[in-house]
Specification:
The protein is of the alpha/beta class. The protein is built from 15 helices and 16 strands. The longest helix is centred in the last third of the chain and has 15 residues. The protein is elongated and about 75 Å long. Bound molecules: zinc ion (ZN). Zinc ion binds next to loops.
């Protein structure tokens, strides 16, 4: 039998043992193993299926799944530990995106058993998410010159390993190809094209730039300290439709799978990496007073955010702060469809008088963008309120992200905040990034006829204190 080896960051592996195992499995001499059920993490008794302990709560945002059988999320560290042990895990995206869970494992642990489990129980397309530098290092060409797929899934040409494969499709042979893709010593010459393995090129910057399973898999492996090449497979139900997040609880329990969401990975990276760069600081005299204007480049969205500072910043003293999300129509054109312009100017006046910060984040229309906001306005003209209009367009009611804002405030030396806001979600979004909101100060703007309905919606549907 020919020697087939692969090298990963944690050593050189001989995969001849897999050949023997798989042949034996194919001959019916040995059952192909399913992943063992992990011991319960909150007690020493039994497994997660029999233990009655409450599942440990996942840190960070957990997607809201509709359905009666939802997935239970684990803290990220437990998911990473399973990946390091070569186990399969579940990874879910946003219910507003694909609303799907993928089975994921590390490329270096793409054993025939793991591949066979995916093919048998998940039954989607088994793909190989790879870090961009791994794809480029191998010189794998992309499948499409112009990607027109809805979610821009970045398939390279398909491949099979040159050595150790015949038709390339058995679980064993896909295992060899995948492990070869994870091999740090592999070159393009080790593969033939096309083949039965489908590498995917993750975007530079990972989940911070694109919240997809490809990026999630690669980022999770990086965080786990492993080779950034993985395997993922969507889960299809027996009737041939895709399983949704709210329908996979029993599947998860049956096979003892740990689960995480892309939101947890994003949140982990926002907590552990610096995602902003301070660029410039200039004097900015305004009609409301004089400010020092700092510009920050965000690696998350490539946008420039501004912080207008008046007076000294002392980390020991609570500082007055307004975190304002860009609203072009309100801020610049004084639109009366909302109260953004008046809120901004009231806050600027107060900060110029008492000292503090106006953080201006370029996330138009609760993060959905200007064009989508105008579409939402149109829907409102047809009778929907602002929350329903966003849902109708397929967006979550509020996509704004305060992780970047929190990093800017920390960079400016802020720790304690007196937050000028009517929005309780801002407090949740900012706390836990090394910031403490010690006080919430409402901004009172008198309602008028044009924005009365909008303000009523914010108060009734989104819990704003107006
Ligand atoms: Zn507005």
């Amino acid at each position: 039998m020919k020697q087939v080896e692969f090298t990963a960051t944690n050593g050189v592996f001989d995969i001849n043992s897999f050949i023997t195992q798989c042949d034996a499995a194919a001959m019916g001499e040995m059952p192909v193993e399913t992943p063992a059920e992990p011991a319960c993490s909150c007690c020493t008794e039994g497994t997660t299926t029999v233990c009655q302990c409450e599942a440990p709560a996942a840190e960070g945002s957990v997607p809201v799944a509709d359905g009666t059988d939802p997935i239970i999320y684990s803290p990220l560290e437990e998911v990473l530990e399973d990946l390091r042990m070569g186990k399969l895990i579940l990874m879910t995206d946003d219910p507003h995106r694909e609303n799907e869970a993928d089975l994921v494992c590390a490329g270096q642990f793409a054993t025939p058993q793991n591949i066979n489990f995916m093919a048998t129980h998940a039954r989607g397309l088994i793909c190989v998410p790879m870090a961009p530098e791994k794809v480029d290092g191998l010189g794998l060409p992309m499948q499409a010159q112009h990607n027109t797929e809805k979610h821009h899934t970045a398939f390279t040409v398909s491949v099979d390993a040159k050595e150790g494969t015949t038709t390339g499709i058995s679980a064993f042979e896909r295992s060899i190809t995948t492990m070869k893709l994870a091999d740090t010593k592999a070159t393009l010459d080790d593969f033939v094209q096309p083949g039965h393995c489908f590498p995917l090129r993750a975007v530079e910057g990972g989940v911070i730039r694109r919240a997809g399973h490809t990026e999630g898999t690669v980022d999770l492996l990086r965080i786990a300290g492993m080779e950034p090449v993985g395997v993922c497979c969507e889960i299809m139900k027996e009737d041939g439709t895709m399983a949704r997040l709210g329908e996979l609880g029993s599947f998860q329990k049956k096979y003892g799978l740990k689960a995480c969401s892309l939101a947890q990975i994003i949140e982990h990276r926002q907590h552990t990496e610096k995602l902003i760069i301070r660029e410039e600081c200039v004097k900015l005299p305004t009609d409301f007073g004089e400010f020092d204007c700092y510009s920050y480049h965000s690696k998350v969205d490539g946008k420039t955010h501004l912080a207008l500072v008046h007076g000294p910043i002392d980390p020991e003293k609570p500082i007055l702060c307004r975190v304002h999300s860009e609203c072009l129509t309100g801020d610049v054109f004084a639109s009366r469809r909302c109260d953004c312009g008046s809120q901004l100017h009231t806050a600027m006046r107060r900060v110029a008088k008492e000292g503090g910060i106006i953080l201006y984040l370029r996330q138009e229309g609760r993060g959905i963008g200007l064009s989508a906001k105008l579409h939402a306005y149109k829907l409102q003209e047809q009778g929907l309120d602002t929350v329903d209009a966003n849902i109708e367009l397929g967006f979550a009611p509020d996509l704004r992200d305060y992780g970047v804002g929190a990093q800017i405030l920390r960079d400016l030396g802020v720790r304690l905040l007196r937050l000028l806001t009517n929005n309780p979600r801002k407090i949740v979004g900012l706390s836990g990034h090394g910031l403490d909101v010690v006080e919430q100060l409402p901004i009172c703007i008198p309602a008028h006829e044009d924005n009365k309905h909008y303000l009523d919606t914010k108060r009734e549907r989104m819990g704003h204190l107006i």
